[in-house]
Design brief:
This protein is an alpha/beta fold. The chain has eight helices and 14 strands. Strands 3, 6, 7, 8, 11 and 14 form a six-stranded parallel β-sheet that branches. Strands 1-2 form a two-stranded antiparallel sheet. It comes from Syntrophus aciditrophicus (strain SB).
């Protein structure tokens, strides 16, 4: 594509709200008459038709997100994104231009973004990377999905169950993706859905470690039941809120049907790495482009 004088960064255009968006030109024409969320309510509703029809026990020790780089050289990088925005800024939010530049660099340098389900495949593509998004912000549809489609990159969104179709008050009241949008996103095979718990994201001090074991199990089962009702299948993926988890929490997640567990521990996924403790590289506004490239080169 690059040899033809085509740059996927040309997808960036000014939306009616004055924000940069990564929509392709064809989609940009359509949105003049039908906004994204209105369109997806209809598309997602059609896709939904087949599916419609405590005593506190300690979960310690704490394994938190502040650990140093783990894993051997030559491992696979699993990237962790949250929101993409030009109007909201914090350490966990990448700008639209920043994200687009990173995706274009990955594509131009021969990287393949694979799904989490392929982590134990052998052999993997020579330059494999995994792209994950935590929380489920609506910005994914505007800024991430069009680029992922263009580059044939796969990605996983880890959903906060009770925030779907609503707003996340603790994060500047930003809008979240709806179930209609998730049905649309997963229909094309590019996006997988994981669990960020159903409603335990609100426990900000120590995440799931602040709740009784039964509450954790019930929460994860509720998420699975909701996924089956809305998407037609449960999920095997969980990402721990704020990076806090324990061995007992991992056992409970396994009982609830999760086998692929994403942490916030910095590192690469190596050949001997377990699927229930996958390290990730957090990418936010404070990561310089040269740092991003250096991390990928060192994997």
């Amino acid at each position: 594509m690059e040899g033809m004088g085509y740059s996927p960064l040309s997808f960036l255009h000014q939306t009616q709200r004055g924000h940069l968006s990564a929509l392709p030109r064809e989609a940009a024409v359509m949105t003049k008459n039908l906004d994204r969320r209105t369109f997806l309510k209809g598309a997602g509703a059609l896709l939904a038709l087949p599916f419609i029809g405590q005593a506190c026990t300690s979960l310690a020790p704490v394994l938190d997100q502040d650990s140093v780089i783990t894993g051997a050289e030559g491992g696979l990088p699993v990237l962790l994104y949250h929101d993409i925005s030009d109007s909201f800024s914090d350490a966990y939010t990448a700008s639209a231009t920043q994200f687009a530049s990173q995706m274009e660099w990955l594509y131009s340098n021969g990287y393949s973004a694979i799904s989490l389900s392929r982590l134990k495949d052998s052999p993997l593509p020579e330059k494999a990377v995994v792209i994950t998004f935590d929380d489920g912000y609506a910005s994914f549809m505007d800024f991430a999905f069009p680029l992922l489609q263009s580059y044939r990159f796969k990605a996983t969104i880890n959903i906060i169950g009770n925030a779907v179709g609503s707003y996340l008050p603790m994060a500047g009241n930003r809008p979240m993706l709806s179930w209609d949008e998730y049905r649309y996103l997963t229909a094309g095979g590019i996006v997988d859905l994981g669990c960020h718990t159903f409603k335990l994201h609100a426990f900000r001090h120590r995440g799931v470690l602040d709740v009784p074991e039964k509450m954790l199990y019930d929460d994860l089962k509720l998420f699975q039941e909701t996924m089956k009702r809305e998407i037609g299948r449960s999920s095997g993926i969980i990402a721990w809120p704020y990076g806090f988890y324990s061995r007992r929490a991992m056992e409970i997640a396994t009982q609830a049907g999760f086998h692929c567990m994403l942490t916030s521990r910095r590192g690469f996924f190596g050949p001997a790495s377990p699927l229930n403790e996958i390290p990730r590289i957090s990418v936010g506004s404070d990561m310089k482009f040269e740092t991003f490239k250096s991390i990928l080169h060192s994997a």
